[in-house]
Amino acid sequence: MNKDRDFQQIKKEIREWIRLDYIVPKDIPDIELYMDQVTNFMDAHLYHNKRGEEDKTLTKTMINNYTKNKILPPPEKKRYGKEHIIILIYIYYLKNVISITDIQKLLYPMTERFFNKSEDSTEEKSMSDIYESIYELEKAEYFNIESSTARAEELTEKLFPMEEDAYLHRMALIYLLGYDIYSKKRLIEKLIDEMPDPEEMNEKEKKSVKDKKDKKAQKDKMRLGDRKRNN
């Protein structure tokens, strides 16, 4: 068996190891769901991502905590819409990588700009549009992850062949993958650290609203003065 064939075989094995369930954009329901329906939907679509049978994909307590921490907007009359589901999908993947505080900071602009976007909004994209675009990026990135993981396995096999020492082989592979994850996690944290805090964004929004009101009041005052002079 040549080296190219070895690598292809490794990639095939890696593909089985890292295969995950995902939620296709068109599968997200357009109707509003109650909390039990939300947890059932997430569990049905992401069931195979669980490490053990006892693990939970999403629970009522988790949803309530996300709302309490202002990551997930509250439901309307105890019902969750399509945009709620999209945010929960983001949280599901991010919570295993970054802290809840970082998730809040990352998703705050998303909910402020796109959640229940009003008809007079200047935003051209909807949350559904954004999710579909990110989903397509993830599909493309999957093959990059598959190849880089297979390369790590190939390097490990050269240094510590599985047949000679299974423990050293697995330990070295885990270390290589861990180093890769740690490096990317540090980059993610740096990018989030450079984003403004939600409190700062609120202050800017309040100032913007105040400035608009002041300008309107000034214009109204000038109009009133013009009327008096004309009379």
In short:
This protein is 69% helix and 2% strand.
Structure description:
There is one protein chain. The chain is mainly α. It is built from eight helices and two strands. The chain has helices spanning 3-18, 35-46, 60-68, 82-94, 100-114, 127-159, 166-193, 198-230; strands at 33-34, 79-80. A two-stranded antiparallel sheet has the order 1-2. Residues 1-5 have low confidence and may be disordered.
Protein traits:
single chain, 231 residues, mainly alpha, two-stranded antiparallel ribbon, 69% helix, disordered N terminus
By DSSP (H or I, 4+ residues per run), the number of helices equals: 8
| Beta-strand content | under 5%
What is the helical fraction, as a range of percent?
55-70%
Shape field: elongated
Spatial strand order of the main sheet:
1-2
Taking the alpha carbons of the first and last residues, their distance comes to 99 Å
Parts with pLDDT < 50 across at least 5 consecutive residues? 1-5
The helix-and-strand class reads mainly alpha
Q: Give the number of DSSP strands.
A: 2
Give the rounded overall mean pLDDT. Answer: 84
- What is the string of SSEs from the N terminus onward? HEHHEHHHHH
Q: Main β-sheet, in a few words?
A: 2 strands, antiparallel
Radius of gyration: 25 Å
